[in-house]
Amino acid sequence: LEAEALAKAARIVIAGGQVQVQPMGGFGGGWSGGEQLFWHGGAVGAVLDLVVDVPAASKYAVEIYLTRAPDYGKLSFEVDGQPGAMTFNGSSPAVAPSGPFQLGTFALQAGQRKVSLMIVGKDADSTGYFAGIDKLRLYPAGAIE
Questions:
Q1: Residue 64 parent element (H or E)
Q2: Residues 56-97: pLDDT tens digits?
């Protein structure tokens, strides 16, 4: 699921900051579709929900592709209210795609579900709390027990 397509389809909910679709061609390759969803103007405590359609009740492995840059912050995640396995540090000396980042495996019911990103801080060398979201993938991982 392209994050920028979710924004274009009004499938996001934001509490803190704004989002825009950002072309990434000027930063080299590696972004799916050549764009990302750029989240700016947020601070610690801001939340961005990506609303996704889950086709069937099942366990799903959830993977997200993000961006790193000198002015990006740290994110934590929830999938349908369940905490993700790790936080993501977006700070980097150069703008670059993160590659796949595993949020964990989650039991999800069919229908609209939220993948939530929360700004939780930043490195001392980062100049901001920005975030870039490229895409999200859900892989079936077994029946709900």
A1: strand 58-68
A2: 999 999 999 999 999 999 999 999 999 998 899 999 999 999
